[in-house]
Amino acid sequence: MVKRTLEEWASVGEIISAVAVVISLLYVGYQVNQNTDQMRAANRQQLVNRSLDATKGFAMNPEVARVLTKVENQVELNQEEQTQFSYVIRGVLYDVQEAFLLHAEGGLDEGYWGTRANLVKIYLQTPVARKLYLSNREQGVLHPRFTAWLDQALPRNEVL
To answer: Among the four residues 25, 35, 57, 67, which has the most C-beta atoms within 10 Å?
Structure first.
């Protein structure tokens, strides 16, 4: 039987410690990835719930539905209708801005971010919505990084 010196046993202990540290780091990395996935799912669900509530609100409110129909058909809005529509657009802008910031911080995946980006582009296809966006941008109520992105994302003739 081979006798080991204290120094040899210390070397074996160091090797075992190093392996344990590597295994621990791999486990921590796995946990971080799982946590990130769960955070993204929670963010996505929160955005979906907010959008669903807003969509139901638009659909269930006859006045707002009438205003949205007028906008879609490019019928001029009276002052009260313009105010109603401005709140709809501001809500959409805030919703998409939140998704933009979550995506930029890594808290929202590329696929879901793409759906939110398309939503705001669709809403801003009408002249009245673009005008409201520009007003909100000029008032400084939207995040500068979001407005910089949106200005780039819209066709040049749609941003003043």
So the answer is: 67
